Amino acid sequence: MLESPKELSFEASKMALDSAGLTLKDIQSVVSGSAPDAFDGVHMKGEYYLDGMGAIGKPHERVYVGGGTGVFTPIGGWWNVASGMYDTVLCVAEEKMSPLHPHPQYAFWSIFDQILERPLGTTLLWIFSLEMRRYMHKYGIKEEEIAEVAVKNKGNAIDHPSAQLGAKITVNDVMNSEPICSPVKRLDVSPPSDGAAAVVLVSEKVAKKLTDEPVWLDGVGWTLDSTHWTNRDLAYPEYVEKAAKMAYKMAGIKNPRKEIDIAEPYDPFDYKELHHLEGLQLAGKGEAPKMTVDGVTQRDGDLPVCPSGGLLGVGNPIAAAGMMKICELFWQLRGEAGKRQVKKDARTGVAQAWGDLMQVGTVAVMRS
Amino acid sequence: MSQKITSYPGHEITSDELKEGKYLDIQYKFVPRYSWAAGVAISRFLDELKEGRIVARKCSQCERILVPPRMYCEQCYRPTDAWVQVRDTGTVNTFSISHVGTDARRLKTPILVAVVDIDGASPGMGILHNLGEVEPASIRIGMKVQAVWKQPSERQGAITDIRYFRPIEA
Predict the structure, then answer these.
(1) Which of residues 8-27 of B touch A (CB under 8 A)?
(2) Interface predicted TM-score of the whole assembly (ipTM), two decimals
(3) Which CATH number does A5-100+190-367 carry?
């Protein structure tokens, strides 16, 4: 995109403030999120984009847990409010991947162990393809079942005004797309993207003055596993389970499958949506593919999943992509999602992001 | 609230516009040099690779045998206790056929990648490495494999002292 990181941050922040009927003067602190500095080639990115974030002269913190950053950003905002320090917090996530050539994938090379893994010629796609293969093997899942997620999410994204890759595609299109890192094919993967997204988080007393229909951030959870990813069960994201259980406990949710109406799990790859649905306790182990094939996760289904279009359809500006999910739940839970509005009366939603060396789970439960 | 948002901003740049030179393109290369400390555990591991051996560390509390080795057990959060030699054979835990290199450029010859669970270590203790001397279509999870080492004179004390893992004939 033509917009710089500062401009992207400004546009998203301004939209969030306008939506809340607030101006920057009303904001007491700012929490920002952005993933690797290596994309921009600007070290101290959190300080660089500061003015676009509306954070000059205010308490500001940048949070960072790789791809998990987008959902971690409002969690950081939650600390600000829940601690009693501030009543009004602007939470902004920004990512600009396009500066790095020949491909932003290159930035991920340096997340691998520099002694034992990088000399083998690593690319981030390896860990996804290795994990996808192990997941398929353990539960007897077919590539065609996984492809249904890409079909659904790219289709949903047609109705998103900021979508990069909204499209009507078929399972065959996915299956016949270029093999990139088998079993991962081109259409199994989200694109590199530029973008920003923002929300305003306020205390209960301020929320009630601003609107009769607030959306509450009722539970947050986050955990990380070790970087010894080759020593781990690659078929199940235990760190997502731990983060989800932390958030559910805080939100008083005892039976997520009955109590969660709508979900926005992290879907940088189609199988990751399935993996994360299982980690979020919204499907049994190995059962998320069947739910998808049966249409349960469609917008008019019993558990709409990624009604936004997700990363596969809207795009994957890393930190901003996770925050986009928080924005989507806000709109869905208020009934303001327009063409994307799910059929059921959604009152409780969960958003989740994931990142680094397959080790981060960040989870937020929201209610209207 | 969101009805107050009337338009979604942003200007898309196409790759054609970039190629046509419509926008100034400042190119910058950053070529840093690092000397990394491999650490106490991995330095020993690399020394042993040079000798054609794979070594692990044992935690006597949880009784796990850890590969790659570490001087502390991250689960028991205590120092590990002993060096253990493990075998240079193992089982394919998962694998991939990579048609892209580090910077996502397409490769003429795909790289075969696997997590290999090492025999003699605790279950699930895998390392990342390459596979060789195998047709991509015949790789299977659960396949038994063995390290193919560089000649002793060519070894550098690096993970690449193992050229790749190849299937063990049944």
Answers:
(1) 8-13, 23
(2) 0.91
(3) 3.40.47.10
